[in-house]
Amino acid sequence: MLYAPAPLHIPDGFLNLVISLLFWVMTVIMVGLAISKTSQSLGGKQVPLMGIMAAFIFAAQMLNFPVAGGTSGHFLGGALAAIVLGPWAGILVMTSVIAVQGLLFQDGGLLAMGANIFNMGILTAVIGFGLYRTVIKANKGVRLAVAGIAAWLSTVTAALLTSLQLWLSGTSRLEIVLPAMIGVHVLIGLGEAVITVVALAFIEQARPDLLKTEKVAAYGGRGWIVAGIVVSLIVVLFSPLASSDPDGLERIAEDMGFLSLGLDAPYQVIPDYTVPFLGETALSTIVAGIVGALVLLGLMVLVGSMLRKRQTAK
Amino acid sequence: MHVDLFDRYSQGESPLHRLDPRVKVVVTILYIISNAVLPDGAWAAFGLSWVLVLVVNWVSELGIDYTFRRSFVALPFALAAVSAIFSPQGQPLTDWSVAGFSLAPTDFGLIRFGSILLRSWLSVQAAILLVAVTQFPDLIHAFEHLHVPAILTTIIAFLYRYLFVLTDEVMRLLRARTARSAALPGVKSGRNVVWRAKVTGNMAGQLFLRSYERSDQIYNAMLARGYQGQMRTLRAHIMTAFDWSLGALSFLFILLLQLVGRIA
Amino acid sequence: MPVTHQKRQQVLTIPPCEGEVLTVGKLNFAYPDGHVALRDINLNLCNGDKVALVGPNGAGKSTLMLHLNGILVGRGELMVAGMPLDEKNLPYIRAAVGLVFQNPDDQLFSPTVFEDVAFGPLHMGLPEEDVRARVETALGQVYMSEYRDRLSHHLSVGEKKRIAIATVLAMDPQILILDEPSAGLDPRARRSLINLLRELPITMLVSSHDLAMVREVFPRMVIMDRGQIVADGLTSDLMEDEALLTLHGLEKP
Amino acid sequence: MPVTHQKRQQVLTIPPCEGEVLTVGKLNFAYPDGHVALRDINLNLCNGDKVALVGPNGAGKSTLMLHLNGILVGRGELMVAGMPLDEKNLPYIRAAVGLVFQNPDDQLFSPTVFEDVAFGPLHMGLPEEDVRARVETALGQVYMSEYRDRLSHHLSVGEKKRIAIATVLAMDPQILILDEPSAGLDPRARRSLINLLRELPITMLVSSHDLAMVREVFPRMVIMDRGQIVADGLTSDLMEDEALLTLHGLEKP
Ligand SMILES: Nc1ncnc2c1ncn2[C@@H]1O[C@H](COP(=O)(O)OP(=O)(O)OP(=O)(O)O)[C@@H](O)[C@H]1O
Ligand SMILES: Nc1ncnc2c1ncn2[C@@H]1O[C@H](COP(=O)(O)OP(=O)(O)OP(=O)(O)O)[C@@H](O)[C@H]1O
Ligand SMILES: [Mg+2]
Ligand SMILES: [Mg+2]
Would you say the ipTM is above 0.90? Predict the structure, then answer.
């Protein structure tokens, strides 16, 4: 098969309007930042480079390898793109890839594209680059190991966020979709990790100049490290909890019920909007709260570090 | 090798092929939003939406079942929505108990599940129609006119062009691997999964470097032809009265869909 | 379309066959988009034969070659190394047929030369010492022994081409199939390729646009055009038939 | 390193120059990694000259060509179309020098043939009608007029090559610089390229490994090796000097 749709691309119809628009807004902000960052720091050479790197990611996703029983592993590439090209260029590259997959192949919807870009392009860049950035000064073995962990985590994170979005849209029941999604992607992530590590080792061997410490450092600083670590920690703590013990999740939700107060408002946008299956509305808002807080935290750290840099530049 | 299969554009001379791509993009997006906000169980509106798809299929001379035959790409994802059938809201139809979970399909759940599938199925068909009657370069220009930042549209234009070059390259790499994936009688071949994943990682690394180095060449080619930082184009898209009226007509029809969905 | 069909009988001037290692009978193939790329192909290769496959762009040469180790599967008969080509025999046939693609970049996917040459033997499940021995021998055959630890990415085209040939020699194939091996080489590299092909004591089928090389290396020549074999005979005879060459977009070197 | 250096005087048999369109004086260049790719290059092209640049892989041919419209910048003198090559003149020089890369996939980056051919004229800031007219003329010159609306990625290699040439013809250059234009073409496509090059009434510098084509099309020939020009003279003379050819990895066709 030439083009195998990846299981994370949400088609239209599976997310409701509110969730779709919410993620569109966050995606537009991040992509806007990425555009201003890349066009201010880089020359015209960058545009063909990113275009071809996007084609590379697209093509590399066709690389598969036999696993067992006729199935095969695939490659997603977000973490690799962010590590090699820097997080901002990585975001633009993944955005273009997901846009073309949605437009041309209907692999992922148009209205759901904001969420798809966020899950597979932005989060993977935050985690992939953020974690790798913490160890750029370490030796090769450590760096590759961390890159592998980052690749694995970014896959799992994308799956986690996808399940949450489906659940918040009232499309799936969390206690079913979450373990299923995470379970599958824990395995897919292993393939992703191996391919990312080996590809990085290859690049380092053949063109070490592309992965020089100073070069990676120039792509971004402390903000990414913090964001990468925070997001990763949340995922690491959250996903096993969520997938093995959905009741536990509910308990936490009840304990932290206060969070729901501030976040009820967006759901009133459409009057007849309901979150089905959830007599326990608190749970849905908690999760939305965690996701939202996480995203806001990331954004704040990033914007803060950018502002700081601008100031020191002046 | 030809990866022409990638090109979803279908050659034609219908009025829809000639319609300004901006109109097509905007109407498609409105239609998909319309599907998203139609209430669950608005069967009449869903039916009418499908009629619209069929009519467009017919007008664009693609053959009435063109999108239907291609509309099942999102089907695997339906698995994710199956759990909606067991929604705790609504009346349970039977009572199944699986491993302590009470899993009962409910009437509300079934309606919800059906609506999700219909929405997705209709939206996919709209997207298929869009790319079947619009050349991809025109689509990119439309997004430019709709104020998608030039840097993104330019990246996407490059992506589209090099998609074909690089996927051909991947196909050839895969071929090379297949050609040497041999076995001897009585010996287990293929070693283990990790080794195979590692080989694939090497292929990804190869492909990356070749792509990276090729981008240098292309930048040189652009410089050689006077590129100074921004792309210029001759393709002026001008909205005609026909474009405006067809756009307005579609908009009205989508409003009608919403009305039907909410009254019925 | 008036096609001059040189009858197979003409080939009888070639010394009689010691054993057929490849038999293609009435092979037909169409690509998924409906394009018919092979029509009723009949071809026999005897042990030790060195045969050139020539014809214009798009004639179907690469398509035919891809059938010979089962990457593409058409309708018709195919016997390779005494086995009919089917699902069950496929892995063994891949060990018997060494296929080298036109562009060496398509062939080399590992970081170092050693790993690339070792891929085939490793995949066949040979023990480590055997793999090492085979890699050494194969690299020696193409005079590239001292390149074992080089990165294939940094080699010149001519060097890559030799490595690509070594990757299949290491699998100890009974038949070597090369797709346009001389394209893009400078005259010196081309000359050393010609010498290599002449020296290798192995059955081979080689497609090429380089008719000068064909005349030097291959006693037998097969002309394809539009998916058909339109001539099959002694190179020395066919090269004199200018009408035939011109008809099929070729040119006497 | 004993290098046979053919003196420039040998060239005097070429009819006297009508006006120099290109002068390279003592050009030196090293790549960032320290690899010295050009050493003391001297080269003059007169109006209407058709010159072949030959030499083994890695001789520095492509590197030299990239200097001629300022993509690479070395130490030395460069006069193109009467202007010294510097920052200020660069856009005019790029309009005067049409450079075609070896691999057409590196050259064609726009979605449709029309847009690709129009890219150069548009970036020169020409008005729309002029752009259209130039595209038509250029496509006509390579016999590809009916391909205007095709998508570039659907074309065969030979077709892509012609379009690549059209993209620079549309800029109406005074000098055409082609890097290995015949590599990978089948004999028929190669023949029509030869005819095209012979017909085009324009100064050209063409690198090639295809010495048979060089002999047919180019009266003058420049041999490079290891970054130096080692011979420059009438093709008919140099082709007879087998010692010289062999020394630089070439071979009489
Ligand atoms: N994947 C494909 N899908 C459809 N048609 C194809 C495909 N690959 C090749 N073709 C077509 O099949 C025909 C034979 O192609 P093939 O590559 O075998 O030619 P060839 O003789 O090897 O030519 P060349 O000398 O250019 O290598 C051509 O017309 C080509 O356009
Ligand atoms: N980007 C680069 N960095 C370092 N060295 C380079 C680079 N590009 C080329 N070289 C080296 O410079 C030398 C000249 O290369 P160039 O591409 O000009 O050769 P060429 O004569 O065009 O060869 P060919 O016939 O293979 O095209 C070669 O030794 C090559 O390895
Ligand atoms: Mg071929
Ligand atoms: Mg070159």
Answer: no
